[in-house]
Design goal:
Structural class: mainly alpha
Number of strands: 0
Strand content: under 5%
Order of helices and strands: HHHHHHHHHHH
Radius of gyration: 23 Å
Shape: globular
Distance between the termini: 40 Å
Number of helices: 11
């Protein structure tokens, strides 16, 4: 009886959690098809595609999206090597030096984004570097690299260092050992860290707001629209982004299951 109650309570919790996560997304996406100037699904005034047409004709939002994409790619390119190097360094140390370095490298994650943005702007101003998307990249890398470091560091805990030592004993150089022994083991963490860095960059607002200069990114543009008057055009953009995310997740899951099925057939 007690186990049945716990099972029912767990199911109710899961359903409530999913509803909390999915209902706002459904409402936000539904507003993109409502023929109302205010982004809402109630009252429903009729089905329309006008907000997608307005989105297509909005050059500003496409330029902001392009800037966001460029910044996100640059952040991934810089964050993954820096985070990986930091994880390797932390993993190689022992005792208090490891604790101190770990705390130092993880501290940007705990720092407010506004502080990171202002600090980055003031630091590079000393070198006469103007604000712009390049400073947004630097500001985001300063804390996003820590996320990558955490993921790679967690993957390193399952790595057998004896494999690396064996490769060196068999005549491999340190670079060959890194490329053919260590990195293949870290590929899942590097891939996950790249995805995490990409989406962390896209959704970043505070650090970008203070360092972007005259350029505009997607989050800054949406934030400005919230202040000046948001329209369902933003809902149309959100619907497209949500659809791409869901399709990507489904495609990944289908591919993963097919690979697992093939592996099971091969073992059989």
């Amino acid at each position: 009886m007690r186990n049945k109650f716990r099972h029912s309570a767990l199911l109710i919790y899961c359903y409530c959690f999913l509803a909390l996560m999915l209902v706002p997304l459904a409402v936000m996406g539904g507003a993109a098809f409502n023929d109302s100037k205010f982004p809402t699904v109630l009252p429903w005034k009729g089905w329309t595609w006008r907000w997608f047409v307005d989105l297509y004709n909005d050059d500003t939002i496409w330029q902001a999206s392009f800037n966001t994409l460029i910044v996100a790619i640059a952040v991934v390119v810089m964050s993954v090597p820096i985070g990986t190097a930091g994880a390797l360094l932390v993993n190689s140390l022992k005792g208090r030096s490891r604790t101190l370095l770990y705390a130092l490298m993880i501290s940007p994650v705990l720092t407010p984004g506004a502080v990171i943005g202002i600090s980055t702007l003031l630091f590079w101003f000393k070198f006469n570097v103007p604000a712009g998307l390049h400073l947004s990249v630097f500001a985001q890398v300063s804390f996003i690299a820590a996320y990558v470091m955490l993921m790679v560091l967690a993957r390193l805990q399952s790595f057998d260092s004896a494999l690396e030592e064996a490769a060196l004993d068999l005549g491999a150089t340190h670079w060959q050992s890194l490329r053919r022994v260590l990195l293949p083991h870290l590929y899942p963490a590097l891939a996950a860290g790249s995805v995490l860095a990409f989406f962390q960059s896209i959704e970043n607002f505070n650090a970008t707001q203070f360092t972007r200069g005259a350029s505009t990114t997607l989050t800054v543009y949406v934030g400005s629209k919230v202040r000046t008057g948001i329209t369902p055009t933003i809902n149309a953009l959100a619907f497209i982004l949500i659809s791409i995310t869901v399709i990507g997740a489904l495609a990944y899951e289908i591919r993963r299951r097919r690979i697992a099925a093939r592996a099971a057939e091969a073992e059989a």
